[in-house]
Design a protein that fits this description.
With 433 residues, the protein is α+β, with helices and mostly antiparallel strands. 38% of the residues lie in helices and 13% in strands. The radius of gyration is 27 Å and the shape is globular.
Length: 433
């Protein structure tokens, strides 16, 4: 009897063990197989991340760009945020650093002409929002020199849309070495193109918008932006002249001096030579790697680093804070930072297919054929912002392309195809969801 009981117990234990093995294998089967299947058919998000990694890492690996940082956001969710390559790869003599400084999402970038939208356009938005300015006001209301017969019809709208007829570019530092002299010089220049009849992208118009912001507010441009934009939105790493205002250690390097801008002055084939300027009459060019000093010559040499056209430094995280406000109809949290009606006004297309300050033309190479309402801007140093309201999505891509140096043809590497590849990858992913 005892023997029978013992045999029964052993059989029972073995059966339980076999059942446990069967159950374990079944669990394993149903957890592993979907994972394998998922790897064969990755989600749109995984596909997007993989494609972006491939695009940007290949650019770094082939020495086309030193580094980059990207952030993509949809609604309240960050889809992807990543840094690639190096914040500085070469020294002034184009010798490879040993080791190069690794790029991080915390690095500050010279955002170049993104200053026009992040700082200057937003400032004009706020003043319009408060009833302190109307975009159809004549510029002469704030700058008396524009009361001249050929300029009296120029409005704030013309400046914002690059249709005032101003010079597209002028080496102001050949004639002016500080802000007030710079303003007077621009005011004295004749119009170069018929007012309101064509879009001619002009830095000078945004320098004048900076002057107007100062006139209305009674503050310096950098102080107005700090008090009215960057501080309220907690954009703590955004501002002008970062080397003077804080102990920043993570700043992406740009160019070795200003070799391309010097070419703009000297090389008549670029079509930017000013006949009254003798290129040899000024020789204050910088001869070191620019890191924390604005690349733009007019902003640095003629305006002390503070201009309505260029000069701001920022991070992808800070830029996203402002972009999120624009995507959320002017709200930051529960606070109405800018009225929705004001944002709608600035994002209404003109006859040249652009908004006030912001580019909206789907022919633009960095957001080509984007959905209706898509807007953004680029910066010469390699930066760009693109916002796609139809999908509640934004792309911020910062590239420090200038640290690779000029090509044999005397140009910086063209990052527009890279921008478009990223934009197309995001659009493909959005349409698959």
């Amino acid at each position: 009897m005892k023997l029978y009981f013992l045999i029964s117990l052993i059989v029972k234990i073995k059966i339980q063990m076999i059942l446990k093995i069967i159950i374990f294998q079944a669990i394993l089967l149903f957890t592993v197989v979907p994972e394998i299947s998922g790897n064969r058919n990755p989600s749109p998000k995984k596909q997007l991340v993989s494609e972006i990694d491939s695009i940007l890492q290949s650019q770094v690996n082939t020495n086309k760009i030193p580094g980059a940082v990207i952030i993509i956001k949809q609604g309240n969710k960050i889809l992807y945020k990543q840094a690639y390559g190096f914040a500085q790869k070469y020294d002034y003599n184009h010798i490879l650093l040993s080791p190069p400084e690794k790029m991080t999402p915390r690095h500050l970038f010279d955002i170049a002409s993104l200053t026009k939208v992040v700082g200057t356009t937003t400032s004009i938005m706020l003043l319009a929002d408060r009833g302190q300015i109307n975009v159809d006001d004549p510029v002469s209301k704030y700058i008396p020199a524009f009361g001249a017969p050929d300029k009296m019809g120029v409005t704030i709208r013309h400046l914002l849309t690059h249709t005032a007829g101003l010079y597209e570019w002028y080496p102001l530092y050949y004639m002016a070495s500080e802000k007030s002299a710079c303003y007077k010089l621009i005011e004295s220049l004749p119009l170069r193109f018929p007012m309101g009849e064509q879009r001619r992208y002009s830095d000078l118009g945004f320098v004048l918008l900076g002057e107007i912001i100062e006139t209305i507010s009674g503050m310096s441009l950098d102080l107005f932006m700090e008090k009215n934009i960057f501080s309220p939105l907690k954009m703590n790493d955004t501002g002008y002249n970062p080397l003077k205002t804080a102990d920043y250690r993570k700043i992406a390097a740009t160019s070795a001096g200003n070799p391309y801008e010097k070419r703009m002055v000297y090389d008549s084939t670029l079509g930017l030579r000013i006949k009254e300027i003798d290129p040899a009459q000024w020789n204050g060019w910088r001869s070191y790697i620019l890191r924390g000093e604005v690349n733009d010559g007019n902003a640095w040499y003629a305006n002390g680093g503070v201009s309505g056209a260029a000069g701001l430094f920022s991070t992808v995280g800070d830029l996203q804070k402002l972009v999120t406000v624009l995507m959320n109809e002017g709200k930051t949290g529960n606070i109405q930072f800018i009225k929705k009606e004001t944002i709608d006004l600035f994002l209404t297309k003109d006859k040249f297919n652009n908004g006030l300050g912001w580019m909206m033309d789907p022919a633009n190479s960095f957001m080509k054929n984007g959905p209706e309402g898509t807007f953004g801007h680029t910066g010469f140093t390699g930066t760009n912002i693109c916002i796609i309201p139809e999908f509640n999505t934004s792309i911020i891509l910062l590239i420090n392309r200038q640290n690779t140096g000029l090509s044999p043809s005397g140009d910086y590497y063209n990052v527009n195809p890279v921008r478009l590849q990223i934009f197309n990858a995001v659009m493909k992913s959005l349409k698959q969801n």
